[in-house]
Each structure stands twice: as C-alpha cells, then as structure tokens.
Specification:
Elements lengths: L15 H11 L3 H16 L4 E7 L8 H10 L5 E4 L1 H10 L5 E2 L6 H6 L2 E4 L2 E4 L4 H17 L4 E2 L1 H11 L8 H8 L3 E2 L7 H10 L6 E2 L1 H14 L2 E7 L2 H11 L5 E8 L13 H7 L2 E11 L2 H17 L1
Parallel strand pairs: 1-2, 1-9, 2-7, 6-8, 9-10, 10-11
Antiparallel strand pairs: 3-5, 4-5
Length: 313
C-alpha cells in the first residue's frame, strides 16, 4: 500500500527532528526532499567508520551559516574541508571585524563611493574586508617565512590563519579546523584576498611557492585510506567537483548529500544532481545519495540541527 499523505502539525511547537519527520509524512514536494536529506546527513555524521568530506563555497561564510559549519568541525564530524579562497577571507575578516545586514536593492554606485561592498543582501565595509585581511595576513606570512617555509600548501596556510585567530572564537571555521587538525584544502587559492596577499608577499620573497600537489597527495591518502567515504556538498563549483573528482579513484562515494539552487538543464557541474555523478564513478551505484534543492543558508542550519538532535538522542 502507498503511504498516506498526512497533514503537518506545528501547534505543539515540535523539535526540529520531529518537524522533519512530519515533513516526510506530509510528502510535500521539496519538504520530503529535506526530510530525506536529514536522514542521509544523520547517517553520514553518525558513521564512525566514514571519512567525511565537507565542501562549500565562500559566500555562505559571510552569513550566519558560518557558525553551523564551525560547529560540525569543532564537534568532530568532519575529516576534510574543500572550499574556495573566499572562505579564508571571510572567516579571517569576521573573526576581527563585523559584517552588516543590507538589502538586495541598495544603490551599488552609492555604496562604492562610500567604500562599502555588497554581497547579496549583506554590506561589508572595505576596512572590514581587504584592509583587515592585509593587516593580518602579512605577519602570518612573515612568520611562516621566518620559520623556514618555502613551499606552502593551502592546508598549511589555512592552519596558520586558524592559529592566528584567537582561541575561543567559536564561530571560526579555521580556528576549529586548526584545533581539531582538520585539513582545509583550497584548490583555487589565488582567487581571493588571501591569495592576493600571498602573491603580494611573493613579490619580495620569490623563493616562496604554493605547493598544490602536496594538498592533492593528502586527498589521495584520505581517499584511498577511507573505509567508507561520505560527502556533504553545499553549492557547486570547484569545491564540489574536487570532492567527487578525488573519490572517483576509490570507485566513488559511499554516501553523498548535495544542496543546491542551480539548475541541471544547462549542463553545469553546480547543477548536476548526485545521480549524474554515478555515471562518472564519482558516486557508487549502490550509494545512499540525494540532492536537496534550496538555499543553503535556510536549509542547512535546520537540517544540521535536526540531524544532531537525532544523533544526540
């Protein structure tokens, strides 16, 4: 017999996990997908034998979702992070300076005259981004250089930044990663303010190189050493692709959860659902995998809250 669609109750102020179960029972379009995503997320995070890869783009680090990501790292649910350079930018900057609420329809020319950046509906003063990053990055790079570093992997750079962020900065992803010894790998390291600071430092320290291949070796070790491999992928781009690319060499991920707002009909990697990755051998044919459509900043805090509630219970 097919399952009956049930109406969703909220009059008893349900917990997040209870609400998610009711979304599943309600069987309503994207709501059911969210419930399936929470079930898979709880299985990934709750499997002690699974090597967990977490990938995400930088823009969500400018939002409060940063705190959710940091919580997963700090509580030991993540074994490796793959992200973009802007994650280093925003995590470092926000550890010392605030970002502000804005609006989508602000006058961008007027913002430019006032030295204010708009990121979606957020506003970032120039001094709270580029200026503070330069002020913090150059001493970090000088310390690395003085300590004998000549070939700098992106994970070593991310760790050095994390160690420079004050202990107790609970929402910092890089601080949490440094404390938990979780590698943060940034394949496109020059595409951001931190990367530009490395380039600027290199102008007077030409013996310094960026050792991307060392990062790739670590990924190889993680992939081939994994008893089981799972990935939680938020958004698309290089972070998502690098995660599934490496896992194809072990015949694919055993579990894959993907959250996206991208469409698949343009053939983009960001829009490709997890089922497409099966054809490439990047996700195993018998893997648990699902794609949840929606804004990460809305869905991921709810999904993580429900999954952790389930695991802790």
């Amino acid at each position: 017999m097919p399952r009956k669609v049930e109406d969703i109750r909220i009059d008893d102020a349900p917990t997040l996990d209870t609400l998610v179960h009711r979304l599943d029972a309600g069987g309503g379009f994207s709501a059911k997908g969210v419930a399936e995503g929470v079930d898979l997320l709880a299985r990934i995070l709750g499997d002690p034998g699974m090597t967990v890869f977490l990938s995400f783009p930088a823009d969500i680090v400018a939002t409060g979702t940063r705190g959710v990501l940091a919580t997963l790292v700090r509580e030991g649910y993540v074994d490796a992070i793959l992200t973009t350079c802007g994650t280093l930018d925003h995590d470092l900057a926000r550890s010392f300076r605030p970002y502000y609420h804005g609006a989508w329809d602000l006058d961008d020319a007027a913002l430019h005259r006032r030295h204010l950046y708009r990121l979606g509906n957020l506003v970032i003063p120039e001094a709270n981004y580029g200026t503070i990053i330069e002020r913090k990055m150059q001493p970090i790079l000088r310390r690395l250089w003085s300590g004998g570093t000549r070939a700098l992997s992106t994970r070593a750079l991310a760790r050095a930044i994390g160690e420079a962020i004050p202990k107790g900065t609970s929402s910092s992803i890089l601080r949490a990663a440094a404390d938990r010894e979780v590698p943060v790998i940034v394949p496109g390291i020059t595409d951001g303010a931190v990367g530009s600071q490395v380039w600027q430092f290199w102008q007077d320290h030409r013996a310094l190189s960026v050792d991307l291949l060392s990062d790739e070796q670590l990924l190889s070790d993680l992939v081939f050493g994994a008893k089981r491999a799972g990935a939680v992928m938020l958004g698309g781009g290089i972070s998502k692709h690098h995660t599934i690319w490496w896992n194809q060499f072990r015949d694919g991920l055993d579990a894959a959860l993907y959250l996206t707002t991208a469409v698949e009909w343009d053939g983009s990697l960001s829009g490709a659902r997890t089922r497409e990755a099966v054809s490439w051998g990047k996700v195993k044919a018998n893997a648990r995998h699902t794609t949840v459509e929606g804004d990460v900043t809305v869905l991921f805090p709810l999904m993580v809250g429900a999954a952790l509630e389930r695991l802790r219970r």
